[in-house]
Amino acid sequence: MISVTADTFKLAEVFTISRGSRTEAKVLTVRVTRGGVTGVGECVPYARYDETMDSVTAEIMGLPGNISRVDLQSALPAGAARNAVDCALWDLEAKTQGKRVWDLLGLPAPKPEITAYTLSLAEPDAMEASARKNAHRPLLKIKLGTPDDMPRLEAVRRGAPDTPIIIDANEGWTADVYSDLAPHLVRLGVKLVEQPLPAGEDGMLAEIERPLPVCADEACHDRASLPDLIGKYDVINIKLDKTGGLTEALELKREGIDQGYGVMVGCMVGSSLAMAPATILAQGVAFTDLDGPLLLAEDRDTPLTFDDQGVHAPAAALWG
Of the residues 141, 143, 232, 253, which is catalytic? Predict the structure, then answer.
């Protein structure tokens, strides 16, 4: 049996990117029950990919209750619906066999991974204050994506003069804006820039100079995305809600590395349940961005542990 519930988690503060703001995280929780055992998974329907809470729920509830993880891969496209069910089926298998998911995969237990902490888009003074407040963190991710981002970037660097920084433009720049900003990103010690141009309108990345690594986020969903990234991107951002679950995400990671891409493991704004499977995926990658729970005012029971070592593997009571 498969069931879906809608859950809402309040954010600690307003979260803003170039496409808009939010004050809460709306997620879907999937439960798959067989033989008295229940596996759980979470997804975040994302309007950028034409997903709504209702449309994703309909996709999930249209599945046969006894679907296997293998059959799921072709039953639904990559996206939020398949992700929640795929992760729930992994959790169900682990509980049924009395093992952890990484044992089922033949992988070592996940070690803590340093994660980025995201500063949302705001006016320069506010971003400087936020950067100063969080300057102790080992990695900051800065949301930009407007034609007037240089003052914001300078303000963040004033607030956190020594902290490593990555930038996420969320498709908000043009080729000219990025070309103008790129030398300053290098000057200010930025380590990576995510999706500077809109997906599908990013051909110029193959023609202009890329003085720092450029990461494909909205342009990279699953393995089928890889051919279109050649010559334009240096790193791929793997998110479970884009790949459609841990099963495809692991394959995308393997194939991406084989093709010479660096890997970043990211997330939508969700609870610890959404991040839990991604801690397996994040092992050994160049950048980890699983800070969703850190942005919440409330979280799941038995949440993930975040400390100076980074984000830890989930307790069995949470997932896997």
Answer: 143
Q: Pick the catalytic residue: 141, 239, 242, 253?
A: 239
Give pLDDT, residue 18. 67
Tokens of 291: 């800070």
Position 20 confidence tier, pLDDT thresholds 50, 70, 90: confident
Return the pLDDT at 96: 98
Average confidence (pLDDT) over 48-53: 96
Distance CA 185, CA 192 (A): 9
d(CA 93, CA 112): 24
CA 7 to the chain's CA centroid: 19
Say which residues have a Cβ less than 8 Å from residue 191's Cβ, sequence separation at least 6.
164, 165, 166, 212, 213, 287
**Is 141 in the active site?**
no
Residue 138 has a CB neighbour count (10 Å cut-off) of 13
Q: Which residues pair with 264 in a beta bridge?
A: 237, 287
Q: How many residues does the chain have?
A: 320
Whether 99 sits among the annotated catalytic residues: the reply is no
Pairing between β-strand 310-311 and β-strand 306-307 as defined by DSSP bridges: antiparallel
